[in-house]
Design brief:
Number of domains: 2
Strand order of the largest sheet: 1-3-2-4-13
Strand content: 5-15%
CATH topology of the largest domain: D-Maltodextrin-Binding Protein, domain 2
Number of strands: 14
CATH class of the largest domain: Alpha Beta
Helix content: 25-40%
Largest sheet: 5 strands, mixed
Shape: globular
CATH superfamily of the largest domain: Periplasmic binding protein-like II
Length: about 500
């Protein structure tokens, strides 16, 4: 059952990094059904040498020996660092080996085989299977934007009702546990098993050489002192933009403060400033409690950023598309590498395009609203949730084994991702490693209710450079509480 004490995500990463293995890898394999079996002693050369026992909290259990545990994997996008649930080929890749290792340890301890069915339409497939009582999986991976309507229909099992599953353990994402519960029910969650959620984090990369040439303060120091705010971000971007033609027309020959896309800018900066579309009260009920004064200030700042042609280079905008020809598909990354934009923001996975370059860059979390804001917030691109069918035959078994795989991932997959992908390939300095820790510790999950249009209304008004963001929200303010009340009632049932 859920406990009050929660270990931070960064603390979990520190622990994971301390438990780094000597990896001999294997490549992932996407596609249909896949199975991982326990490697033989001859091939299993990365034995755990630390004292960490992922199954100490679970103890011995022979009840499930000889069975299989099946995950319906909706995460098939190729841009993720590793979107595989299982892997069974040895080719030197540390993450793939770690994926194999976590399944092998569960197989060795409990005699259970992990299988996966990859399905890009996991939402519809899971809905049909659960609704018709024709289950062929134990857990389904479904995106956050799609899970609430399904939870309202009671298609998922409540994690808080899983006897023996302690969500305070470090392999569960505590930010997800806190943010995504409704009325004391937690119908979906995530944790160390899934590294794709890290790939989808919105953060800010900056060109360090360009920053130094402009004699700007260190963003690292500003983050550490709590002074990395949206006003500082704007100040830096204004300093960086240069119209070399002095004709007030910015082209691919000029220098910009920021390279990104409208949806990224909106989500990252609104969340970074602590703007929540939907919040919760003391009874864990969803409520609409918008701070209109704060929304006015933040939305005006974002409009300034987004619609200043010298500040933001948006390669998807009609104005900038002509200047993107011949620059390939990674326009924004190229601009940062060439020193023609100070800041760049997309998902963390896309920083991989910097690895082959000589760019001297750093990474910081999205800026805060002001110095008084207590913490930083990082938002993700529609991460995947782990959903247990409400009509699963043996909930105790499903909870036990899912917890085992999460725990087994904690000192294998997570440190492989952290050490190899982040520290080894993304971070170029110790400060960035520290910043990434802050980013991971500041993950924030927005509640996406399909029939509540707050998010889309705000973004639509900002995108068309309208000063009427608050007015637009107030026009729907009478409908939103009624919609949320319906969600609360459904969730309670």
């Amino acid at each position: 059952m859920r406990k009050n004490h929660l270990m931070s995500a960064f603390a979990a990463f520190v622990l994971a990094a301390a438990l780094l293995l000597s990896f001999v890898g294997c490549a992932d394999k996407n596609g249909g059904d896949q199975t991982v079996t326990t490697p033989s002693a001859a091939t299993d050369t990365a034995d755990v040498t630390t004292s960490f026992d992922p199954f100490a909290h679970l103890g011995d259990n022979d009840s499930y020996r000889g069975s299989e545990f099946c995950i319906l994997n909706g995460c098939v996008a190729s841009w993720f660092t590793r979107n595989s649930v299982v892997s069974d080929e040895l080719d030197g890749d540390p993450i793939s080996y770690a994926i194999t290792r976590r399944a092998a340890r569960v197989a060795e301890k409990y005699g259970v085989t992990l299988t996966v069915i990859s399905d890009p339409n996991s939402k519809n497939s899971a809905d049909k299977a659960i609704s018709t009582d024709s289950l062929y999986f134990d857990v389904a991976m479904i995106t956050l934007m799609n899970v609430y309507p399904m939870a309202q229909r009671h298609l998922f099992y409540d994690y808080n009702a899983l006897d023996g599953v302690d969500l305070s353990n470090p392999w569960w994402d505590h930010n997800a546990v806190n943010d995504l519960s409704v009325c004391g029910k937690l119908y979906f969650c995530t944790g160390s098993f899934d590294i794709t959620r890290f790939d989808s984090i919105r953060c800010l990369a900056f060109n360090k050489d360009m920053l130094n040439s402009l004699s700007l303060e260190s963003p690292y120091d500003l983050v550490d002192s709590g002074k990395w705010t949206i006003d500082k971000f704007i100040e830096f971007g204004e300093t960086a933009k240069i119209d070399y033609g002095a004709d007030s027309k910015y082209t691919d020959e000029d220098t910009y403060g920021f390279g990104s896309y409208n949806d990224v800018i909106n989500d990252m900066l609104l969340s970074g400033c602590g703007i929540k579309y939907i919040t919760k009260n003391a009874d864990d009920e969803l409520i609409f409690d918008m701070n209109y004064d704060k929304l006015t200030v933040v939305s005006d700042k974002i409009r300034k950023i987004m619609h200043d042609p010298g500040f933001t280079f948006d390669s998807k905008s009609d104005a900038m598309k002509p200047y993107c020809r011949g620059m390939g598909t990674r326009v924004l990354e190229q601009l940062l590498v060439e020193g023609r934009t100070l800041f760049y923001s997309e998902c963390l996975a896309n920083t991989r395009y910097f690895r082959e370059s000589s760019i001297n860059y750093g990474i910081v979390p999205p800026p805060k609203y002001d110095e008084a804001q207590e913490r930083y917030y990082s938002v993700m691109i529609n991460p995947f949730m782990y959903c247990i069918p409400s009509n699963i035959a043996d909930p105790e078994r499903t909870g036990f084994l899912l917890d085992a795989y999460m725990a087994s991932s904690h000192d294998t997959v997570v440190p492989a991702y952290y050490d190899i992908t982040l520290v080894g390939k993304i971070a170029r300095d110790p400060e960035t490693v520290k910043m990434l820790g802050i980013v991971f510790d500041s993950l924030s999950y927005n509640i996406h209710i399909s029939n509540v249009t707050v998010r889309s209304t705000i973004q639509s008004e900002i995108n068309r450079n309208s000063s009427g963001v608050v007015s637009a929200i107030k026009r729907i303010a009478g409908v939103v509480p009624k919609s949320l009340a319906k969600v609360n009632e459904d969730m309670k049932g």
